[in-house]
Amino acid sequence: MRAGDTAAYDWSALPQGARSAVGVAGLVMAASFLGFGALVRDFGVGLHSGIATTVTVWALPGQVVTLDMLARGTGVAAAALAVTLTAVRLLPMVVLVMSKVRVEGANRWPLYFLCHFVAVTIWRIAEDEIEAVERAKRLPWLTGLGLALMSTMIVMTAVGYHLAQLAPPLLAACLVFLTPSFFFISLFANARISMDYLAIAAGVVIGPLCHRYYPQLDLLAAGLGGGTIAYVIGRIARNRGR
Asked: Would the N or C end of the chain have less CB density within 10 A of its end CB?
């Protein structure tokens, strides 16, 4: 097969990948986007803005930061910088997934298209299931998974947005806090070393202070500040241990 021939990928696996969106990971993601839809309404921005971030940013931390900053009147450039910082963590996942799906001699544009869908959920599913898929089917399989997940999360965003208006106040408040609670729990679930926990603790302390004095940049400052403090303390501790 000549170089650049997209037939090197077996696109018959696209529907199979879409079906893989139905599972525990997909349900957890759907619940998170249900809460995100309620959060969009709480931010006071339109549903179209929430859906736009789902399509373009496609990572809940970045989406929440984007809408939070824009709702507080922060400029687009600052919001874009904040999203870029939150997305850096995804780069190793993208590289890893691409190494598992690329077919030698095939056209590269499908790889660029797939890159947009690679976030934590797809990376996790790929780690668990991709080795059982034939090499030529892997990229189409993951593309089908990504398209199915994104379509579902657009619907869940809209459902959460309207439920926040129709549900009783207590239930609406629970929906609003669903996404932040999920994020906070996932921080502990993904923590591996003591510095991870230190970064979380520093962010918890810095967050309220930033919200009081710099509300337009509170999430960005809390995350960047907490991580920086943990990194510096970790470096000092390692140097003293040598």
From this structure: C
User: Is 14 in contact with 140 (CB distance < 8 Å)?
Assistant: yes
Q: Return d(Cα 112, Cα 110) in angstroms, integer.
A: 5
How far apart, in whole angstroms, are the C-alpha atoms of residue 66 and residue 74? Answer: 9
Q: How many angstroms separate the Cα of 129 from the Cα of each of 22, 58, 61, 82, 90? A: 13, 21, 25, 32, 19
Q: Are 183 and 223 in contact (CB under 8 A)?
A: no
**Around Cβ 196, how many Cβ atoms within 10 Å?**
16
**Threshold 0.85, pTM exceeds:** no
Tell me the C-alpha distance between 152 and 107, whole Å.
28
* CA–CA gap between residue 2 and residue 221 (Å, rounded): 50
